[in-house]
Amino acid sequence: EAVHFRSREEMKEIIDKSPIVVIDLSFDDYMSTRQAASLSTQIRYCYGTLMRTKTPFQLWLCGMDEMNGKTPKVLKKDSGYDRWLMKKSSKSYMDEFDQKKLVYLTADSETILSELNPDDIYIIGGIVDKNIHKGLCKSIAAKQKIRTAQLPISQYLVGSTRKVITVNQVFSILVKFREIGDWGKAFIEVMPPRKGFSLRKDTESSSLSSKKEIAPEKLN
Predict the structure, then answer these.
(1) Lowest CB count within 10 Å: 60, 83, 93, 196, which one?
(2) CA 153/CA 164 separation, integer angstroms
């Protein structure tokens, strides 16, 4: 039974008990109004994914400037925004959560994410065109002394050298992996072959990951 077909109260209860993913909305100053609008669309896609899956995350928007932020201004135009089943905070994730649990997802990390630890809190940088600001999320994480990791894209996919993907793609991959426990299948469902990706031959016959959610051995 998909979450989408449950009552609002049931959905809220399920989501509130789920592992946490944060979208960091502290990057408005790095984006144009057009880019902020694009990010807002990506966040709406994230919310749509959240409400359709049987295995949701508790999704947080942190670092929001509700009054003057470019991204929140666009988001608030959505008629259902105030009723979205996601947490919204003007505070940093550093103030909301235990620093030891935080893992910033960035393509610039030297650490490959092999499993999802339900006790960890995964952060997605809410910024469009990360190639222009390469290393920004990693640099911020280093200053804050929190762990980083990158999705195992090159370990499972060939046909594209692109490791920087959209916010909603990252979130959808996390959701899909939590649902099926297979990175390869999760990547292909979210980033299909028509986009230039295909599974590596050595990952097609057997999964390199377990369905059981365990902590990565090392995410430093």
Answers:
(1) 83
(2) 10
**How far is Cα 28 from Cα 96, in angstroms, rounded to an integer?**
20
Characterise 100 by phi-psi region: left (phi > 0), alpha (psi -120 to 50), beta (else).
alpha
SS3 199: strand
- CA 206 to mean position of chain CA atoms: 25
Structure tokens at 1: 């039974």
Burial class (CB in 10 A: 0-12, 13-18, 19+), 109: buried
Q: Residues 27, 166, 94, 12: what is their CA dihedral angle, to the nearest 10 degrees? A: 120
Kindly report the pTM of this predicted structure: 0.87
Does residue 156 contact residue 208 with C-beta atoms inside 8 Å? yes
What token pair was written down for 49?
A: 């994914």
Element housing 133 (H / E): none
Contacts for 80 with CB less than 8 Å, ≥ 6 apart: none
* Grouped pLDDT means (10 residues each) for the chain, 220 residues: 66 94 95 94 96 94 94 93 95 98 96 96 90 86 97 83 79 96 92 68 50 38
